[in-house]
Amino acid sequence: MGGRHSSSTRSRSSNASQGPASGSGGGGGVGSGNGSALADYEVVEVIGRGSSGVVKKVRRLRDGASIAWKEIDFGDMCDVRKQMLLTEINLIIQLRHCNIVRCYNYIIDREAKRAYIIMEYCPNGDLAALIKQHRRDKKYIPEDDILRWLSQLALALRCCHCRQGVKAVLHRDLKPANCFLDAGRSIKLGDFGLARVLAGDASFASTYLGTPYYMSPEQVKLCGYTEKSDMWALGVVAYELACLRPPFNGSTHDQLVAAILSGSYRPLPDVYGEPLRSIIADLLQPDPDRRISVEQLLDRPSIRDRLPPDELPEPSLRRWADEQRRLADSLGRLRRLLKSRERELDARAAAADEREARLAKREAEVARREARARLLNDRLRGLAPLTDLSIVDSSDKENNFSLGVASCADSNSTASAAAFVSASYAASTSASPVAPVHDEGVGDACGCVDEKEEPPPQLHRPVPRPRRTLQREAN
């Protein structure tokens, strides 16, 4: 489709009404943002097609400079959507950075219902074509090139995200096909989500139902788009530059969404070092709060060392806010850990108190049993004078033991005490008169009686008289 414009286009351009274009449509003619017209350019070739329009390489007639424009058909747009398109274009024109594709102006052809965005031309194609070429040649992209392009893309995103006093601009469509290489093989970030503005929610739905290789987990969960979503897409681009394929894939759409939500991917080839690995790992964090910001990325030594002197990161309010948020998150984690430790210590203290209570109960039981044993021993000792009915001379003991014969007093002492207690108990409990208990002598097993031993005192208990006898005496 290369070549010059048709005569009908030139005739419309010559009769164009110049001045700022209105997004509301209306009468015929061509309007532009700075007075240029379609007749000032000639088409050279088509260099790309996308969901938002056709990109062509054109030549500016007044100086022969090669530039590009994007043709957008707004015939089916409502007035609100047209105004949104113009607002987005004016916002993009305000972005001025060496790593962002320069948007010079725009031309509105009301008769053809087309908008032309005049942009900077990048002769070395985009990263998608570069990745395809390396995959075909089976060669990895040098790590130094990847880190250099990452630093340039980070600078471009910082220009969009960290606009002091102005609303942040979100790219919303960061992918290799929108990262262009200029004549010096430096990265130029382009195509700032015009497809999203053109189609609104329908664009999100079509992307979601297609192959969302570069969509963040929060987008997949329909949680909205933030600056951290651009950082996720940057991580996907970095991984694809290293591995020549996207990090998340699946045979079905559901499998792809599950892979994105998990954040799991194959490790990088061994030819790449730890700096690139850690950057990609921090960019592909499924949790947006744990994902690094553009300021944090620019602070990495492997990125900061590749920045030009005038682009070195400086302390900013956003950077301070990110640091405060990181510290608050760390403090929250420490507080939760402290509370869990406190609960664990409380549980241990309760268990220790329970063990001490059981030990105290055992000690009380042991003390009670010991007191009972002492009481029984004291009672037995109180009975000892009454039951020690024999006195054995020490000399006799020695003689007896020397002869190998046990003393009769020793052998019969316990038996005499038992007989005495039994007789006393029987006498106290008997209802009939009990005769005095006489102990004629204590003998041993052989029937001998110790002559030195005196008989024990006799115990007498009065015999109660029958009640009938008492009554007769009273009468």
From TrEMBL:
Residues 1-21 have a biased composition (Low complexity). Residues 41-303 form the Protein kinase domain. It holds the Pfam family Pkinase. Its EC number is 2.7.11.1. CDD domains: STKc_Nek2. It catalyses: L-threonyl-[protein] + ATP = O-phospho-L-threonyl-[protein] + ADP + H(+); L-seryl-[protein] + ATP = O-phospho-L-seryl-[protein] + ADP + H(+). Residues 22-31 have a biased composition (Gly residues). Keywords: ATP-binding, Kinase, Nucleotide-binding, Serine/threonine-protein kinase, Transferase. GO terms for molecular function: ATP binding; protein serine/threonine kinase activity. Belongs to the protein kinase superfamily. NEK Ser/Thr protein kinase family. NIMA subfamily. This is non-specific serine/threonine protein kinase. It comes from Macrostomum lignano.
